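Cross-check.
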Amino acid sequence: MSSPSPVFTDSERDAIRDAVAAAETRTAGEIVPYVVRQSGSYTAAVWRLASVVALTSGLVMLIAETFYTGWAWAWLYTPAALATVMTVGGVVGAALTLIEPIRRRVAGAGEMEENVHRRAAVAFVEEEVFDTRDRTGILLFVSLFEHRIEVVGDIGINAKVEPEEWVEVVDLVRDGVRSKSLATGLVNAISKCGDLLHRRGVVIRDDDTDELPDDVRVRNE
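Predicted model, tokenized:
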């Protein structure tokens, strides 16, 4: 099985790194861009659709048996035929979940939101976004499969920035995804983060140091 194509080119990674470095010249905030391909496996969605299609196939077959009285399809009346039709239906249903829009629909918005929120919390801890002098780390989290973006700030950020103020930052990332340029969306969102944090008083100190790496983190799970 071939490995997935890279989310970013080397030049895009450099552009994101440069955007983080530039934003952090205006604020004490430490911005951590983090991208995952998906935040959950959604195996339940596979079984859910497989079961629905299998049961529907069986029901259609039983209805056909009720109205068809000829001899040409006599095999339909055997238990083995019913088992075969339902098995094929289940396989088709499972295969349909390989199509991302279908998998998302079957998984459901609630499950995806919960998984993204949980995965963002794990990323916040894994990357030690909390480990800054004034607790001014901020995670810009993007989950590609779910089409979800979360901004997770440490307590030093949350004390000065209201949750609704991140809407424009999120919209910039989403605009980049829609225009098929996630890197551009992240660069614009990171710059907006720098502006917002500076405006809200997350000011840089004279002895400020770069406490967290500026690189974008990409995880393929």
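The two ends are 15 Å apart (CA to CA). DSSP finds eight helices and four strands in the chain. Passed to J.P. for a second look.
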